[in-house]
Myosin motor domain-containing protein
Amino acid sequence: MPPHIFNVAARAYQRIQEEKTNQVILVSGESGAGKTESTKLMVKHLVYMSPNRSDDLHNKIVQVNPLLEAFGNAQTIINDNSSRFAKYLELSFDERGQVIGATIRDYMLEKARVVTCNKDEGNFHIFYSLFAGASKQQLIGLNLSESKDYRIIKCGCLKLLEEKTKYREIYLQQMDALKRIGFDADDMNILHCMLGAIIHLTEVRFKEADKVNEPLEIVNPDQVELAAELLNVDPLELCLSLIKTKTEYGGEQLYHLKNLEQARESCDALAKAIYERMFGWVIRRINEDLNPTKQRKKVAASIGILDIAGFENLQVNSFGQLCINFVNERLQNFMNDHVFRNEKGYTLMKAFHGLIQISKNNEDIIDTFWKKNIGLFDLLDEETQFKQGSDAGFVRKVTTNHAKSEIIAKTRNDDPVFGVCHFAGKVWYDCHGFLDKNKDTLNDDLFDCMKDSTNDFIRDLFTIKKGPTGTISETQFHLRQPKKVQREHRSNNAMQLSTELGKSLKE
Ligand SMILES: Nc1ncnc2c1ncn2[C@@H]1O[C@H](COP(=O)(O)OP(=O)(O)OP(=O)(O)O)[C@@H](O)[C@H]1O
C-alpha cells in the first residue's frame, strides 16, 4: 500500500543513479506513527541495494541506531521508544551507487528531560541501562548505588527493578555499539564519568540560610564533591559557582548570592549542558567513524532522510511540545509549498486522494509563532528578558496580542495556559517553567568552572562552540582524545568542603 517504505527508498536510489541528483526523504507523522522505524527500514533497504557493499560499513550504519536511541530516546505516554531529538541522516554513494559512508545531524535534543519528565514518562534510556547493566564495580567506581532511588530514574514511570533484565541486555548492546564505532577504554571511562556526574548533580539539594543576606546552604555537599571528582573540576569552585554568581560592573567584579530557585536552576542547567555536550560528542564520533572520505572514494550523490519528533498532544504540553509542534507546522508548510502546489504534487495529491488528508494552508499558524514582535517566540523572549517577567505574564502577553486570533485559545481561569489550533488539532500548553526553559543558560561561573577542568577533554568539551544546528556534533573545532579521568581518593571530605566553602564565602 502506498506510500510504501521500500518503494520510496528504491525510488530515491533509482534517481541518484539515473539523474545523479541528491535526494531527500522527509518522514513526517504524529509521535508514535512509526517514523523512526520507517527510517531504519529505509536505511537498511538503501544499504542492501548498494552493490559490492562492505559488510563492515553496512553493519556499522545499521547498528548506530541502538546508540542514538540509548542517548536520544525515552519512554513517553505515546511511544515507549520516542525520539527526543531530530535526526537528519545522509547516506553518501559513489558513482556506482555504492554506499560509502553516512553523516548524522542532530537537532533539538530535549535535554530538559534529564531533570524533569512528565508523570508516566521516562528519562533517557541510557540512565536505566546504566543502573541495570553496569557491573557493581563500575557503579561503585562512580559512587553510585544500585539500590538508591535516584531522582534521575525515579522521575517518570519506569520501574527499573521490573525491567532490569531487559535493560541489562540493552546496556550490553549499547556498549558493543560504542566499541564498534571505536570507543576505547578511555572513551568509555569518560562517558561513564559524565553520566555519573550528571546523576550526582541532580541529587544536590539546597536550603535557605537562617539569616537574610546569607548564602544558601548545600545540604549534601558530598554530591557536589563526587560530581566534581568525576569531572576533574575543583569541588570548592563548583560549590561556589552553584550558589553565587559574578558580574562585571565598571571594571569591577561583583558577586551576587543566588536564591534557592536560581541555585536549583543552575545545578539543573549544568546537568543538562553536560548531557547535551556528551550527546553531541557521541554523534560526532559516529560521524568520524562513518565519514565517507575514509573510503577514499568520491561522493557522487547522497540520500538524506529527515526524521524529526512528530506532532505531540500530551496530557501536559510544555515548552518542548511547543517547539516540536512548531517545527511540524513548518514541515507541513514545506509539504504544502513544495509538493502539493506544483504540478507533480497535484498528480501525487490525486493519487493519494483518500489515503491521506491534505491539510489546509497553515501560514497563519506559522505567523502566530514567528511574526516580529508579536509572534509567540518574540513575546516569550521579551518576557524572559524582563526582570519581573513571569510565566503568567507571558500568557497574558499572548492572549492580549492575539485577542482576536482564531488560532490562539484562552482558558476561563487564571492558569498560565493557552491553546494553539495547529494543523493537526488544538493543543493546550501549560506554561509553568516556560521562561526558565527559554533562558536555558549556564551561567559564566559554571562554564568557567568546567573550562578549568584538569581533564583536557572535559575542558575542550566546554570550550567548543555550538554549530549552526545548536549542537557540538558539527563544529570544526578540534576535540582532544579523551584521557581517563584522574580520580583523587577523597574520603569524608564533605565536612572539610563545607568549612572551606564557608571561609571562602566570607572572604
Ligand atoms: N514498521 C514497523 N514495524 C514494526 N513495528 C513498528 C513499525 N513502525 C512502528 N512500529 C511500532 O510503533 C512504535 C513507534 O514507532 P516509532 O518509534 O518509529 O514512532 P515515531 O513516529 O518515530 O515516534 P516519535 O515521534 O515519538 O519518535 C515502535 O516502537 C514499534 O513498536
Remarks:
- The longest strand covers residues 99-107.
- The pocket of adenosine-5'-triphosphate is lined by residues 29, 31-37, 79-83, 309-310 (CB under 6 Å).
- The two ends are 73 Å apart (CA to CA).
